[in-house]
Write the structure tokens for this entry.
Amino acid sequence: MRRAVRFVIALVFGLGLLTWAGSVIVHGTTREWFEKDVSLRAQLAVSGARRGLVANWDQQHVVELATLLSDIAHDERIMAVAACAADSSLLARTRDFPAELSCASMGIHVRPDPEAPAAAWQTWNSVVELPGGTVHVSAIPLLETERPLGYLVLVHDLSFVERRAEQTQRYLLLAFGFLALAASAITVVAARLSWRGWSNELRRILRSGGHRPEFQPILRDVHELVGRIAAEGDAEREGGMWTPQRLKQTLNRHLHGERVVVLANREPYVHQRAEDGRTSVMHPASGLVTALEPVMRACSGTWIAHGSGSADREMADRDGRLRVPPGEESYVLRRVWLTPEEEQGYYYGFSNEGLWPLCHIAHVRPSFRSEDWKHYQAVNEKFADAVCAEVDTDDPIVLVQDYHFALAPGLIRQRLPRATVIMFWHIPWPSSQRFGICPWREELLEGMLGSSILGFHTQADCNNFVGCVERFLEARTDQEQHAIVQHGRSTLVRPYPISLEWPARWQQGALTVEECRAGVVGELGLAPDALIGLGVDRLDYTKGIEERMLAVERLLERFPALRGRFTFVQLAAPSRTIIEQYRQLNERVEFVAARINERFGKGAYRPVVLLRAHHEPPTVFRYYRAAHVCYVSSLHDGMNLVAKEFVSAREDEQGVLVLSQFTGAARELPEALIVNPYDLDEASSALVAALNMSAEEQRDRMRAMRAMVAEFNVYRWAGRMLVDASRLRSRDRLTGRLTDHLMVAAGLRP
Ligand code: F6P
């Protein structure tokens, strides 16, 4: 209704404007016509009386001349007449001749050059404003053969012209006004009738199931859209916890249960052959795997990864496929085989000596080598081909993971233009200044923009990425949609902070905290009342393990009472060991640990226990439960799931998390003791505060953090991305189909 009123107002206003402009034009034109008419009449009047005028044109016949002038002035529109001699003296005039007009003032217009011959005398017409009103003046020469006698001045009253023009304007306004109202009323009624007709027809078709084939595609879309909007509404209203079931339902509802294809370098299950010939399955130490594996269990589908285990080939079929998890078989793992050269160039070289240090502020210089870049390109192609081989539609949902596959979204888009590609970047994204040092920065950005959705952990990472695109590519940023538009396609760039499954899988049947602690104390030969600090990481220079050791050293320096009582246990999974910086880190950590043990160890007491080995998740879980304090000291980390894992393992609501301010997790877990890992005094103070914290305060902090991780769990992380993807898919499908219908309707497509 409001829209109709707005429309009528706009229409009336528009027509009013038109009317005003029209009436101004009409007024001008009418006046011009009347002036021409008046000039003509003056000529006619003079021609009619010419003979008598010529005969009496001198001073002796002024009485006759005056009579002749009065006769001319009998015409209802001629107001006054005067006869002027050739020398511009007045011969005679009627009574009402305006005093403001004189023969002399008009003579110069009739005979501009007094020396000129008679033929050069000319008629002069003009509109003159007088105090009594507007008049039209015609000065007409009177010639006898070739001899000019003088001229006659005829004054016409023009007030009737004004009156007529005003009248016309009034009629015009009325007519247009009426027209405007009539047009508005007709348009509104017609629009309402056709809308009602259209919706009735649509309703009828929807009710009857739409028997006409030409309506089928559009009906499907409408049904789909309506269903989706209703489902989204339901999901929002449902609220509550995200669970595997809810994620599955979301996939069914929003994406018709379509299979999800995950592309990640690291596989969730690695088969290894031991020296004794036995095969074992290993869960790699990887935040990516920890987060994504429960999602795949819930959604099913296919996980495509590098088959890196020594027994991987023999456990898979000839296409590299096997069903996992072992014993549960809920999704397919497709292993892709790489040559040693490919692994060296793509994984160790470009990914981990180039992109990894480029994206982390950890003071290791990135190395970019052309041979590595070539392998990186080739391996991205290889995996993009594997994705295409695994999908069974032309518009699959593909989740591309991490910095190993920056080019894959673009390559998949080339092969499957209608695919929904969601890329998630698990590590930080650098500033444009820093990113600019990569020789292939444009190619990387272009590749990533092949995605439909590009996810980072934090808004700061998104901002950095957008900054890089603005600096290095020709693309438009859509601030409202948080998207980048390039080549007519848009990529949403949004933060999706990653998380864990909730509750933790390893919790089922786990030992109590006391049992775990007693077990660890026994294993490591600690005193029964030992205070246990814990660190869990891959041995990576971004994790700040060295700084962590130094903080422990500082703690023992500053608080001697803790010597003999406090032990810091570091679970360190060897990682990327063929890279020089990792080897050096390994040595440095070992060296610092040995130094601290030497300085503060006594008898069987060792303040630092460095367990350099791969530990399976149940073991790590046991250590989380045994610890009094867990210290995550990353120098730079996208999220850091160790922090969340510690929280999820502590359903006893005890234990303190000391957390580096340089992790994504610090934004979500402010109840941890947040520290700068470079500041050893601050870090050691936080450690001592943690060890002395009352059980009550521990509970309050831990409870808040657990609530946070429980609610914002990994099912929610995946669900949000999938819901966003489904919105994009509906939008693209609808616009695509609508364009098709319109093209067909316009005869542009058969
Ligand atoms: O955080 C980056 C990342 O690739 C994660 O995805 C994964 O948790 C970790 O590093 C493991 O690295 P890699 O696969 O090289 O062992």
Summary: DSSP finds 23 helices and 23 strands in the chain.
